[in-house]
Specification:
Largest sheet: 2 strands, parallel
CATH class: Alpha Beta
Structural class: alpha+beta
Oligomer: single chain
CATH architecture: 3-Layer(aba) Sandwich
Helix content: 25-40%
Distance between the termini: 32 Å
Number of domains: 1
Length: about 110
C-alpha cells in the first residue's frame, strides 16, 4: 500500500517521494526506528537539492501505522519546526496510533454496538 500511495503522490504532484525503511521491533527497541527516520530527514534536508533537485523547504511527511507515528514525531525535531525555513509544511498519519489513551472500546454483539 505504501508504495502505491507514494507512486500516486509522485505522479499527481510531481514531487520527489522518498520511502525510507527503519529498524523494526522487537529485535530493535525504541528509539531505533525514530533514530533511523531522524537520520533520513536530516540527510534529506542537507542533500535534497543536489541529489534529487528537490527543495528542502517544501518538505511534507506522512506514514502508515507505526510510520505515521514516526512522521508526526519526526516533525518535532528542531530543523522541522518554525521559524526554520525547512519547517515541515504538512504531516499526515494514516491509521497511526495517536492519543491512544483516549481510544474508545466498543463491544460488538450481533451487529450492534454497545
Amino acid at each position: 500500500m505504501e508504495a502505491t500511495f507514494a507512486h500516486q503522490v509522485a505522479l499527481r504532484t510531481r514531487a520527489v517521494v522518498v520511502c525510507p525503511t527503519y529498524r523494526l521491533s522487537p529485535p530493535n527497541v525504541f528509539p531505533a526506528a525514530h533514530e533511523d527516520i531522524e537520520g533520513v530527514i536530516r540527510w534529506l534536508l542537507k542533500h535534497a537539492k543536489d541529489k534529487f533537485g528537490a527543495d528542502p523547504e517544501l518538505m511534507t511527511i506522512s506514514g502508515f501505522s507505526a510510520g505515521g507515528n514516526l512522521a508526526l514525531a519526526i516533525s518535532q525535531i528542531p530543523e522541522c519546526q518554525p521559524p526554520n525555513s525547512t519547517a515541515v509544511k504538512a504531516a499526515a498519519s494514516f491509521y497511526g496510533s495517536v492519543r491512544a489513551s483516549r481510544l474508545f472500546l466498543f463491544k460488538y454483539t450481533a451487529n450492534e454496538v454497545t
